[in-house]
Amino acid sequence: MTLTAAPQHGFLSRLYTGTGAFAIVGRRRLWFGITGVIVAVAIIGIIVRGFTLSIDFRGGTQVSFPVSGQVDTSQVTDVFTKAVGHAPETVQTAGSGSTETYQIAAAQLDNAQISAARSALFDAFHPRDRGGAASESSISFSDVSSTWGAQITHKALVALIVFLVIVTAYIALRFREWAMALAALASLFFDVVVTAGVYAWVGFEVSPATVIGLLTILGFSLYDTVVVFDKVEENVRGVLHTTRRTYAEQANLAVNQTLMRSINTTVISVLPVLSLMVIAAWMLGVGTLNDLGLVQLVGVIVGTYSSIFFATPLLVALKEQTPEIRRHTAKVLARRARVDAGEPADAVPLVAEVTGPAPRPSTKRARRARR
């Protein structure tokens, strides 16, 4: 009996059967390099470009008025800038058809600037009230104080910290093995940094909806990691008592066995998010939903990547630093070398030097055997 390689099948066949044909863990240095580059780009975006905070966080003035005819956001920006002396932070549309409105977010405006902006917007776009008559009163201004913005920012940070503390406690209890807990937390950190980096590079506003979306996708990422690690735990149970496969190979098999499930879950999660961005934001004109849709789309994709290509390879790298895993891996490789050298497989014990000598039979079993 000799060890032979598994037959090579088509890509889809190997993907659906999950037979361990994709060497994900075996190429962990490649994935670590790619992950490092992604994190570096995200951090550069956060440092260089920073975040565009909505007025809910930093305070300011919100201007809203109904649209009369086809108006481009650049036209609204030009008119508002000439009236108040500085450009608005963002100009978005909400609603569609007769209910479509423009939402302008700007720094705090004084009474003179509000009056000038109202007159300029009315003269340029003639917004109409509910009765259909053109009226300056249809242009509404609402202020968000910097104190209120600071409170919202504080609450958002507290919510994020509490979530991370709860997740850390859950991971510590769920994965009683320190390597799994550390790998899961590192994967979660990766998801947060990359999602924040994408937001910084794109320049979308960070609003309360963004924070809610971030907490949602962190939960999704944790769920995906737990699914993969559950399979890893199942596969590596008792791995030290046999020299047929290494810990890394068993972990790689677990990733392959859950790969199709992760892909299906991601596709199912991405479709409604794309619907949110395409139908709600683009077709219906609800521009305020772009920030929520983007954070969920990026988070789902990044969470799937980290659970497959980062969390499990990192787990294996941490485990292979322990003496017992190193010794076991060496014994597995030594056994294979003897088999490749032509020694009969039956003469190469599967449990050699791993579990020690076989236990002696009990007294009752010995008497039964003598009979």
UniProtKB/TrEMBL annotation:
<dbReference type="InterPro" id="IPR055344">
    <property type="entry name" value="SecD_SecF_C_bact"/>
</dbReference>
<keyword id="KW-0811">Translocation</keyword>
<feature type="transmembrane region" description="Helical">
    <location>
        <begin position="30"/>
        <end position="51"/>
    </location>
</feature>
<dbReference type="InterPro" id="IPR022813">
    <property type="entry name" value="SecD/SecF_arch_bac"/>
</dbReference>
<feature type="transmembrane region" description="Helical">
    <location>
        <begin position="180"/>
        <end position="202"/>
    </location>
</feature>
<feature type="domain" description="Protein export membrane protein SecD/SecF C-terminal">
    <location>
        <begin position="136"/>
        <end position="320"/>
    </location>
</feature>
<feature type="transmembrane region" description="Helical">
    <location>
        <begin position="152"/>
        <end position="173"/>
    </location>
</feature>
<dbReference type="InterPro" id="IPR022645">
    <property type="entry name" value="SecD/SecF_bac"/>
</dbReference>
<comment type="subunit">
    <text>Forms a complex with SecD. Part of the essential Sec protein translocation apparatus which comprises SecA, SecYEG and auxiliary proteins SecDF. Other proteins may also be involved.</text>
</comment>
<feature type="transmembrane region" description="Helical">
    <location>
        <begin position="266"/>
        <end position="285"/>
    </location>
</feature>
<dbReference type="Pfam" id="PF07549">
    <property type="entry name" value="Sec_GG"/>
</dbReference>
<feature type="compositionally biased region" description="Basic residues">
    <location>
        <begin position="362"/>
        <end position="371"/>
    </location>
</feature>
<dbReference type="Pfam" id="PF02355">
    <property type="entry name" value="SecD_SecF_C"/>
</dbReference>
<keyword id="KW-0812">Transmembrane</keyword>
<comment type="function">
    <text>Part of the Sec protein translocase complex. Interacts with the SecYEG preprotein conducting channel. SecDF uses the proton motive force (PMF) to complete protein translocation after the ATP-dependent function of SecA.</text>
</comment>
<feature type="transmembrane region" description="Helical">
    <location>
        <begin position="208"/>
        <end position="229"/>
    </location>
</feature>
<protein>
    <recommendedName>
        <fullName>Protein-export membrane protein SecF</fullName>
    </recommendedName>
</protein>
<dbReference type="InterPro" id="IPR048634">
    <property type="entry name" value="SecD_SecF_C"/>
</dbReference>
<keyword id="KW-1003">Cell membrane</keyword>
<keyword id="KW-0813">Transport</keyword>
<feature type="region of interest" description="Disordered">
    <location>
        <begin position="350"/>
        <end position="371"/>
    </location>
</feature>
<keyword id="KW-0653">Protein transport</keyword>
<feature type="transmembrane region" description="Helical">
    <location>
        <begin position="297"/>
        <end position="318"/>
    </location>
</feature>
<keyword id="KW-0472">Membrane</keyword>
<keyword id="KW-1133">Transmembrane helix</keyword>
<comment type="similarity">
    <text>Belongs to the SecD/SecF family. SecF subfamily.</text>
</comment>
<dbReference type="InterPro" id="IPR022646">
    <property type="entry name" value="SecD/SecF_CS"/>
</dbReference>
<dbReference type="InterPro" id="IPR005665">
    <property type="entry name" value="SecF_bac"/>
</dbReference>
